[in-house]
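Saturday, quiet lab. Running sequence design on the structure tokens for the scaffold JK sent over.
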């Protein structure tokens, strides 16, 4: 496994995703521990883009429970009916929130968080088993580029889950 990420010197997120995604695939190759891989994945995303907060919430006991993350401390448990993460879990779709103050039920783990994207991670049976939450301290910071790029990262996680289930 490579010890450092090699990232292009650009602010063009499309180019950064193009560089980062294959490196994340290599990073998790040969490691079977899911938590270790999730920890490195959030570190890679945060290093690549400098987002305010990047982390997974894992489905456990009918709640979403904080998993590997990078950034300030965060709320540990989220009900399926609460917040952007709960909405992503329940609707089973990517949710982009340009201004968190305008999202009914948004859970403010930090007042510095201004916009957010949350993506569901599916088991091979099509159930949501965790969500990836990325927060920015800038308003309206997430676009289709992020949804597409982060979805590619999620596909890597889904392959890990599928392989672990075999
Ligand atoms: N804002 C999220 C909660 C998680 S923190 O942002 C890390 C939500 O509304 O679900």
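Result came back. Writing it out in full:
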């Amino acid at each position: 496994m490579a010890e450092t990420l090699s990232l292009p010197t650009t602010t063009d997120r499309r180019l950064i995703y193009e560089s980062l995604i294959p490196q994340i695939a290599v990073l998790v190759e040969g490691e079977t521990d899911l938590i270790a891989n999730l920890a490195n994945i959030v570190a890679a995303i945060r290093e690549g883009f400098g987002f305010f907060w990047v982390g997974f919430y894992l489905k456990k006991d009918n709640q979403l429970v904080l998993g590997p993350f990078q950034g300030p401390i965060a709320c540990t448990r989220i009900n399926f009916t609460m917040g952007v993460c709960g909405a992503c879990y329940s609707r089973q779709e990517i949710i982009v929130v340009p201004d968190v103050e305008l999202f009914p039920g948004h859970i403010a783990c930090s007042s510095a968080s201004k916009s957010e994207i949350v993506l569901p991670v599916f088991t091979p049976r099509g159930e949501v088993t965790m969500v990836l939450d990325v927060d920015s301290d800038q308003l309206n910071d997430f676009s289709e580029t992020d949804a597409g790029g982060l979805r590619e990262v999620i596909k890597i996680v889904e392959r890990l889950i599928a392989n672990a289930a075999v």
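Notes for JK: The first strand starts at residue 53 and ends at 60. DSSP finds four helices and six strands in the chain. Ask whether to fix the surface positions before the next round.
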